[in-house]
Amino acid sequence: MSGSFQWWWKGSRQMIIAIAGGLLGMSLASGQVLASATATEAVVQQGAYLARAGNCMGCHTTRGGKPYAGGRRLNTPFGEFVTPNITPDNETGIGQWSADDFWQAMHHGQSRDGRYLYPAFPYTEYTKVTREDADAIFAYLRSLTPVRQTNLPHRIRSPYDNQLLLFLWRVWYFKEGVYEADLSKSEEWNRGAYLVQGLGHCDACHTARNVWGASQDDKLTGGEIMGHYWYAPSLIAPQEAGVGDWPIETIVELLSTGITSDAVTTGPMATIVRQSLQHLSPEDMRAMAVYLQSIGKPDPARKTRRIPDMPEGVRQYLARGELVYEKYCQDCHGESGQGAPGIYPPLAGNRSVTMKSPLNTIRSVLYGGYPPSTAGNPRPYGMPPYQHIIRDAEIAQVVSYIRNAWGNFGSLVSPLDVDQSRGNEF
Amino acid sequence: MKLFIVIWLSLGFSLANAAQPMFLEVPDTLEERVKPCTLCHGDIDRTGQDAYYPRIAGKPTGYLFNQLRNFRDGRRYYQPMAILLENLSDEYMREIAHYFATLPYVYPQPKSRAMSSEQIETVENLIYKGDSMRDLPACSACHGDALMGVEPFIPGLLGLPHAYLAAQFGGWRHGGIMRGQIPDCMSEIANKLTQYEVNALVMWLPGRPVAGKPAQSGTLAPEMVRRCRHLLSEKEIVQ
Fold first, then answer.
1. Which residues bind heme c 1 (chain A) (predicted)?
2. DSSP category for residue A99
3. A223-261 pLDDT, tens digit each
4. In this complex, do B35 and A382 lie within 8 Å of one another by their Cβ atoms?
5. Phi first, then psi: what are they for A416, rounded to 5°?
6. How far is A344 from chain B (nearest CA, A)?
7. How far is A246 from chain B (nearest CA, A)?
8. What are the structural domain ranges in chain B?
9. Which of B86, B89, B236 to probe the A interface (max A CBs under 10 A)?
10. Which residues contact A104 (CB under 8 A, 6 or more apart)?
11. What is the residue-wise DSSP string for A311-364?
12. What is the CATH code of the structural domain delimited by B116-239?
C-alpha cells in the first residue's frame, strides 16, 4: 500500500514539477540561461583563483610541460609518484569525472574508481576545503582545454603499493573534515587559517613527517621536505621562520614579493611565491599573515642570549672560513654581514643562516639562485652557484663562519654535511 | 662642565656614526643583477680558457633567450642553470638575453692546438663545404661565414672552450641536449659525423680568434630554414 503510494507520489511529483517548470520556463527561459552562464563564469573565475591558492599546477605540471597535464615525478622514500593529468581529457585526464568524484578525491582521498589515494596528494589538508570551493576548482579544471597525455605509472616500492596498508594508514593518520571556524577569533584570522591549513597545504612541507610519511602533527613546526633536500623551517619557532613579532605588512611583503629588507625566499618557497602566493588578493594575503603572526612565538631570549667562548681549534676553523668569505661573499653581503636591504640579504642575525639545520644555507652556497620574479620584485638580484668554484671543505668553513660571525651562533658544518646536502635537484 | 660638553658631544657623534646605515651601495643596473651569470661566463682570464663555460657576450639575442627558457623549462639540461633560472620571468630573461647579446667584449688571442694536416683538411671541408653525399650542410651555411652565428636564433661557434664543444656534440649525438624530445636539425647533423670528425672540429674551433658580429637575419638559405624550423622560432616549444 505505502509502496504504491510512494510510486504514485514520485510520478505525480515529477509531472507537477514538469508542468509548473514548463509554464514558468516559457516566460523565464531566456533570462535564466543568461544568469546561469554568468554565474558559471564567475564560479570558473573563482575556481581559477582557488587553484592558484592551492598551487595545483605546481605539482600537476612537469617542467616545461602543458599546465595541469601532470607527469611530474615526486621522489619519496616510498617510491616515485607521478602526478596525474587533471585536464578534462576523457581518456587520460578527468574528463569523465563528476563534481562528486572530485569532491571524493579532495575530501576523502579516494579516486573515482574507489582506489585510495596516496597522501603525496595532500588530501590530508584539502579535506578542510569547503564543498563550494572544491566545486569551483572542479568547474575551473573542466573549463581547461583537454590535453591528451598519458603519464608514467607510479613506481611505489613494496610493501607501500598495498591498498590495505594505505587503508590502515588512513585510519591512523587521516582526519577527514572541512575546516571549522574558531568563533573566538576574527573572521580574518579564520580565513587565514582556512587558507594555510587547507588549500595552501603549508604543513605538507613545514611539518616533519614520520617514518610512515605522515605529518607528525598539524602544527607548522618545521621539517625536512620529503624528497626535496630542503628544510622547511618552523613557522612557529622564533629561531627559525616564526613571524610572531613581525609586522603584518612585512609578512605580506615576503609572501607576495618573495623578499623584504632582511629576508628572502629561496628554494621551493621561492617557487611557491612565484606560482601561487603572489597571485592572491591583498585581503587573503593579509588574512594569512594575521594567522601566521598569531601562531608565531615571541622570542624573549633574543636580547639576553650569551655566546659561549670558543676553543682555539674552532677559532682557527672559522678564521679559514673568514678568508673564504672575504674572497667570495663580502662584495655583496658586506664586511659585517650587513647585506643590502631588499637586494642582498643580511647574514648577521639572519635566522635561516643560524637555524639548527644548515641545509638551506649550504644549498644556497652550492647552487645559488634568484628570488622569484614577482610583480613587486620583477628584476631580482641573485646569488651565483659556488659548487664548481670552491671545494666542499671551503664551503663548510665559510658556512661555519657565517653561522658564528657578527653575533650569530650556530653549529659548525663539516665537508661531509656539504656533500650530503647535494642531490635531487631536478 | 667643559669636559661634560666634550663627552656629550663625542658621545653624540659616535652614536650618530653608529646609527648611520652601513649598508652597501648596490648599483641599480643589469650588470649588477647578472653577477650570478658572469662569475662563470665572465672574463676569460678569470675563468680560464680551459674551463667549460661558453662565451655568451655577443651571441644573438633570440638564441640566448631561447636557451634561458630551455634551461628553465627543462628542455635543455644543465643543472646549475636550471636551478639558477627556476623562478625568473620571460620578460626578465629577455632583458638579460639582450644585455649579453649587446655586451661589448674583447677576447684574447686563442692558442691553436697541434693538428695534423689531414685533420685540418677534414675540418675545413666540413666547415665551409659540408658533404652532400651524406646530406651534411656546411657549418657556415647556418652559423654564418664568420662562424659568429646569424641573428636572431643561430649561435656562433667561436669563443667556446674545447670541453664545452665536446660536451655539446656528445649531447646532440646521444640526446642529452633537448633530451632528444624535439626534432632538431643539429642532432640529425651531429649523428652523421664520425667521432674522428667531431674530435677534429672541437680541437680546431677553439683555436680561431673571436671577432665580429653575428650575420644579419634573413641570410639563411631556404633549405636550412626548412630543416631547422624548430630552432628558428620564438614560439614556446612544449614537449
1. 56, 59-60
2. H
3. 888 777 899 999 999 999 999 999 999 999 999 999 999
4. yes
5. -65, -40
6. 9
7. 21
8. 116-239
9. B86
10. A110, A111, A112
11. PHHHHHHHHHHHHHHHHHTHHHH-TTS--BTTTB---TT-HHHHSS--HHHHHH
12. 1.10.760.10
